[in-house]
Amino acid sequence: MTPRAKLQMAYELAFHPVRLNTAWNEWERHQITDLAELRAAVVWALTLHQRLPEAPAVSGRALRRLARYQAAARLYRLPSMLRKFAQKLNANDGIPEEVPAWMVRDISLPLLGRSAVNGR
Fold first, then answer.
1. Domain tally, the chain
2. Does the residue 12 lie in any domain?
C-alpha cells in the first residue's frame, strides 16, 4: 500500500463509521491479510484525533476540514471505538499529543448515508 493510500485509509477509519465497522468486522472474521498494516492504519487514525498542530506548514483549508472531521466524529464516538479496536489489535504504538503536520491533508471522505448513484 502506498503512503497516500495508507493515509486515506487512516482518515476513513478515523472519521467514517461505516469504514471502521467494516474493518472491525473483517478483522473478527479473520479476513484481514496484512494485520501489521491494519495496526499501523489504526494508530494513524488515532493520531488524527489528537490536538491540531499549532503552526502547521499546511493549507488552512486542510486544517479546517480536519477540524470538522474531528468534531463530527465525536457524534459517533469514533475516538473511543478506535481506542478499543487498537487494544484488541495490540497496537500499543505511541500516539503523539498533536497531529503531525504531514498528516493534515485535504482528504475527502465518502458521504455518509447517501447513495453515490442518485445522491440520496
1. 1
2. yes
Let me know: does 66 contact 48? Beta carbons within 8 Å: yes
| Secondary structure of residue 98 in the 3-state scheme | strand
**CB–CB of 79/49 below 8 Å?**
yes
When pLDDT is averaged across residues 34-42 and rounded to a whole number, the result is 94
pLDDT in tens, 83-112: 999 999 999 778 999 999 999 998 888 776
Polymer length in residues for the chain: 120
- 116 within a domain of the structure (yes/no): no
**Burial (Cβ within 10 Å: 0-12, 13-18, ≥19) of residue 48:** buried
pLDDT for 57: 77
For residue 104, give every residue at least 6 positions away whose Cβ sits within 8 Å of its Cβ, in sequence order, or none.
Answer: 52, 53, 56, 58, 62, 63, 66
